[in-house]
Every structure is written in structure tokens, then in C-alpha cells.
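FIELD: query
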Amino acid sequence: MKRILFLLLIALPSLTLHAQQQGGSFAAEISRSVDIGYLLYLPEGYALQTEQQWPLLVFLHGSGERGNDLEKVKVHGPPKLAEQGQKFPFIILSPQCPDKRDWDAETLYALVKDIASRYRVNEHRVYVTGLSMGGWATWDLAMAYPGYFAAIAPVCGRIDRNYPRRADELKSMPVWAFHGAADDVVPVTETAKMIKILQDAGGNARITIYPGAGHDSWTETYNNPELYEWLLKQSRP
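FIELD: result
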């Protein structure tokens, strides 16, 4: 039987009336010991609206942001926008993958469940998005725990060879994928094929392809308010 041990290593600052990103660290003993840091964004009004449960957006960065410096997590995506002052109606969890490692679905799920147990998270509205390595991890996490997440938005993530034959696991999960047509790191054909397989299986899946974009399809994606509006419409039964 696997044993899970949660330990908060850095005390979080007290909540204020304004949205902010707070740093923290998470240690889990699952099948092995893992220690990862994370940023946590709490929406404006969280401290005052004590009975409200909030949707949770999990953001997974790319390979270039690995390490133990949480400032690196803020260079792209929702953490970057939150740092610049953009307001979001989510709790946003942005973990940092340790250096020289890949994202691990078991660890990420344990972290998400820990955050959900300590903050007012609506677990029917937990979403995952990520770019590049984080885009692959978005697929991977959804495949590992298809009954938990309400929707995913992978951005230019690679598709593992076993994903197409597991498409039935995601046919009840809304998926909106994003990719650049000129991506020379992860071919857009991988994502397009996966979305077609999901659609043929009866899934709620769509893809946005940016005609002139290379691997950086994340800047336009995360600057688009329609993504967040779409996520907020999704809820797990």
C-alpha cells in the first residue's frame, strides 16, 4: 500500500484582501520521496468570501523553467499574467518541476489533492493546462486521473505513443488543445491526430492551430480571455 505524507515546508503569508501569488513547497512520500515548490494565486475576494468554493487551475510550465527558483515559473502563462496584475477568478496552482526531471502525474495529483484539502477548492471544477513539457504533462495527468479533472487545455505538448489507444478514457472530458503550425519541436500533426481520435470516439475535443506560430503557441493562448471563459463553463458531474 502506498503511503502519502504531506509536509508544508514554508509557511504561507497570511491572506490579504488583494489577489497575490504566494510561494510554498510540498514534500510527498509516495512511491519515492519528492519535494517540489509551487506558486499559489488566490483570487480577489478569497479572504472575505469565506463560504465560497473556487475553481482551481493547475498550470504546468515547460522544460526551461525547471529547478528550485520559483521566479522562473512566472516567465510564461497564468503566473506571468498574475504577476503583472491580471485578475483571475480561479485559485491558480503553479508547481515547479525539479531540475533534470520530468513531470510526474502521481506527485502532481497528490499536490492538487493537498491544495484542495487546505483551500476552498470546488473539486468539480479543477482544470489543467500547460505548455511544451507541461503540455505533455497535461495529457499525462488527465490520462492518469480521468475521473477527477473537469477539463484540460494542453499547449504544444507531445503525444505519447500509448495515448491514442487510451482515448476512451478522455471522451467525457472537455479538451481544447493549442499548437503552432510551424512548430519544429513538437509537430502539430501529433496534437491534431490525438484530437481527431478523441472526436471520433465521441469526445468533446477541439484544437486551435496558429498558422504562423512555431513552438511558442503559449503566448497567444494564455493572452486569450476565451480560454479562461471556456474553462469556467466546464464542470465535472
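FIELD: remark
The chain has six helices and nine strands.
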